[in-house]
Known about the structure:
The protein is of the alpha+beta class. The protein is built from 3 helices and 2 strands, in the order ββααα. Strands 1-2 form a two-stranded antiparallel sheet. Strand 1 (2-7) and strand 2 form a beta hairpin. Helix 2 (29-44) packs across helix 3 (50-70). The longest helix has 21 residues, at 50-70. Residues 1-15 have low confidence and may be disordered.
Amino acid sequence: MIAFVGSSMANNAAVKEEKIKLEEIATDCKKYAAAAVKVETIAAEQPMTQSEFAAAYASYYNFCVDANYSGSVPLLPVLIKK
């Protein structure tokens, strides 16, 4: 299991935890790209513009497709909070 933790967009103290099974998204590149963009958005602590989202989603989607084609398992980016 991989857990993502982040505060809500309103910057209040509420914390949401979402658990995603790597096996479910490793071969589904649409889910992989969406989860990776979510991690990136949480790390930036601000919403993306539509063009930033499109570029990030396409990049992660293509990475996933290439990884699956080569027989690798794409791993999600890691969010480290201090």
